[in-house]
Specification:
The protein is α+β, with helices and mostly antiparallel strands. It has helices at 28-38, 41-45, 57-60, and strands spanning 9-15, 20-25, 47-55. It contains three helices and three strands.
Length: 68
Amino acid sequence: MSSFSNPHYMYLFDMKNGKKKLAYGQSPEDALQILAFRLTEEEMAQIIPDKYIKINQRQLQAYVDELG
C-alpha cells in the first residue's frame, strides 16, 4: 500500500512541564500510540493528550525551542 493513501501529519502535544512533544501519525490518537512505543510510562504521563496542534514541516522550526 502506498504511503500516499494514508497521509501522516505532525502534532505538537503540550506537556505538563510547559514543553511540547513532537509526534507523527495519521491522527492525534495514532501519533500518541506511536509515541507510546518509544517512551516510558513516566514520559507518556507528562503528555496532555487533548492539547495539541497540527503542524507541517515548514512550521517545525518555529517550535524547536519549545520541544522537550
